[in-house]
Design a protein that fits this description.
heterodimer; A: 137 residues; alpha/beta; Hypothetical Protein Ychn, Chain: A; 17% strand; B: 78 residues; alpha+beta; Translation Initiation Factor IF3; four-stranded mixed β-sheet; 4 strands; 36% strand
């Protein structure tokens, strides 16, 4: 199985980014090429100076969700950025910033964490996704 | 316990999915064809995960057992 998995990251909260990092890392461990396309708030979360900051949780988490996530963090659950770094070491994981989102949020490529490999538009994203599955988070 | 000649041992106890699989894949990269890696995990998803991972990557799952909430897997590098 070597089909490419493409993951579009839109949300910038830590729970969604963590879920996406788990999906990406699992695919990389199986030897499947992974393409990640960062849009809007997910892109904002990849700013080098605040990638490790608290990005909050999705609204559906609620107070009980926050307590559960905090407990998992204290128990040693890896940060999503660390999971992605490990996935990149293990397999073929390519992370691209959406050029339109960069412009809207006034972010420069240099402001982003080195996890981000480059900048591309939506046409390049679709061409690279090929016939493989696309996941949107 | 068996008398297998384990090359690398990985303790992934307490780590949640997908860390046990990632650590196994990492260990696999450090050994040669035919050599063995042993992973211990507590993640209840690891049983199905290691089965799927072995099938998909072609590395053989040569031993597997569960004891007091700990799952142990021995994989042979393809």
């Amino acid at each position: 199985m070597d089909e490419t998995i493409s993951i579009v990251l839109f949300s910038g909260t830590d729970d969604k980014l963590n879920a996406a990092a788990v999906l990406a890392a699992g695919a990389a461990a199986l030897g499947r090429p992974v393409k990640i396309f960062l849009q809007y708030w997910a892109l904002d979360a990849f700013r080098a100076d605040r990638i490790e900051a608290d990005h909050g949780l999705a609204p559906e988490a609620g107070e009980a969700g926050r307590v559960a996530v905090e407990a998992a963090k204290k128990a040693g659950q890896a940060h999503w950025a660390a999971t992605l770094r490990m996935a990149k070491e293990l397999g073929e994981v390519d992370i691209q910033a959406c050029s339109a989102s960069l412009e809207i949020l006034k972010i420069k490529k240099e402001d982003l964490d080195p996890l981000v490999d480059g900048v591309e538009g939506v046409a390049a994203f679709y061409i690279n996704a090929g016939e493989g599955q696309i996941i949107f988070i | 316990m068996s008398n297998l000649d384990i090359k690398v041992r990985v303790d992934a106890s307490g780590l949640s999915c997908p860390m046990p699989i990632l650590k196994a894949a990492q260990a696999m990269k450090s050994i040669q064809t035919g050599e063995l890696v042993e992973i211990v995990a507590t993640d209840p998803g690891s049983v199905k995960d290691f089965d799927a991972w072995a099938k998909s990557t072609g590395n053989a799952l040569v031993e597997q057992d569960a004891n007091a909430g700990k799952f142990r897997f021995v994989l042979r590098h393809k």
